[in-house]
Amino acid sequence: MLRAGGEIFILGERGFPDAKVDTTAPVFAALNTKKVLTLYHLETGAVIRLMQSVVRAGDHVADLGSGSAVLAIAAAKLGATHVAAIELDPDAIGNAEENVERNGVGDAVKVIEGDAASLLPLVAPVRVILANIISSVLVELLPSMSMALADDGQMILSGILFSEREGMMRELADSGWRVIAEDHEEMWWSATVAR
Ligand SMILES: C[S@@+](CC[C@H](N)C(=O)[O-])C[C@H]1O[C@@H](n2cnc3c(N)ncnc32)[C@H](O)[C@@H]1O
């Protein structure tokens, strides 16, 4: 079992075969990773750390590049009531849906296959956007994110190399975003941003 941060625990069957569900954990995401090889990444853990002071009960959330849906599930466990888990890769969809059901958050989380740039306007407005995707795609998505986010909204961006921090800070500032929290672990940099 990995403690990703705060009260979120990530459990998996593939990389951590001895993992047991800790029923004393207030919040956990139990993942079936048979098809999705990306069980746990440092940049995923960074989003989970940052989101715990961002996601509120009743929030509408979009998780862009949702993969196994780990972040969408975590958002629902933190109280979000509407979570759109948007993923381009068709091979990830079935596993994400299975993970959502296994975690009992099917009422809140909908897994949607397709490009975030096209689908985000259809689920807007949202108060929180989670996006753990490579920085070049994040930069392309910034205008769509800006239009989809509620006025009091916050985004958590991850998948950014620490060496890309300065460039990303400039891109964000040029598009009217301010960084309100940062996370740095090994080569990865993640940030919570707001207008
Ligand atoms: C690093 S993985 C993140 C998976 C998961 N959210 C996590 O944090 O562990 C990035 C995911 O983004 C997806 N992706 C990349 N570009 C996308 C796009 N334009 N729209 C939707 N998904 C995209 C990829 O297929 C991949 O599954």
Give a verbal description of the structure.
The chain is α/β, with parallel strands linked by helices and 195 residues long. The chain has a single domain, classed as Vaccinia Virus protein VP39 (Rossmann fold), CATH 3.40.50. It is 32% helix and 33% strand. It has helices at 42-51, 70-77, 90-102, 116-123, 135-148, 165-174; strands spanning 2-5, 8-12, 27-31, 60-64, 82-87, 109-113, 126-132, 149-161, 178-185, 188-194. β9 and β10 (188-194) form a beta hairpin. α1 packs parallel to α2 and α4 packs parallel to α5 (135-148). The radius of gyration is 15 Å and the shape is globular. Residues 13-27 and 33-39 have low confidence and may be disordered. Bound molecules: S-adenosylmethionine (SAM).
